[in-house]
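G.,

No rush on this.
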Amino acid sequence: MPKFLRIALALFIMSVSFFLAALEIPHIGEGAPDWHTVKRPQIPVQSISSDSCPPPAPDENCEINRAHPPIALDISTTVCVSEPVLGWRYDCEKKQWVQDCVGSHAVSKWVTKTVTANWIDTIHCYAFYDDYGRLKMVPEYR
């Protein structure tokens, strides 16, 4: 096979692969919505309870935006935890059934916590960082 034909074949295969990759560009980000791809995601916000206490005051040396002061609100998130499975085990020495942990399983629980959201000038909304360091935007209420 001549050298010119090998170079032409390599360039053709490379151009076809780039063309196929370019066809997929409009579909990037499709699938399950992510906090970074969804405009104003609906995080599960709750009203504060009557017996809740206010969050701690901001630091003295931090600048507070007077037009948009920080807000605190309760959010509910679901977490997956491993819980023990309790059962009964027969104790031959005592000749009776005793309660015992027979294993563990994963369960989803709702956890409610109070977060402080600050105004973000670049995206013009309130947002806070979750436990994993992701920026979550607070829905707009009018």
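When you get to it, here's the other one too:
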Amino acid sequence: MRGMNAKLILKEKTDEKVVYCYSADSSTFGNRIEDVIVDGEIECAFVPGEPGIIECQTLKTATNDNDGGQAEWLYNHLWRVIFIENCPPTLFFATG
């Protein structure tokens, strides 16, 4: 399995949800991070009465994330971004 990466920008954080804008894999943009388009949106809603549980959904698919696979890949990583990293305003997320 090849590594994947995405740029994330915090759009909204409330007591009910967190919304991040995300990019498709930066290799799609020739690995030039400054050229990456961050226009997809993923919402992570907190489940009432279930601390530490989120339900993610794609609100808008990012440019070049044609099948939504990049967003779904990020679902598995957003828990750590939200609960361990405390919702940083921007980050570059990569796996190898």
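Residues 5-94 form one domain. The chain has a mean pLDDT of 88.

Enjoy the weekend,
O.
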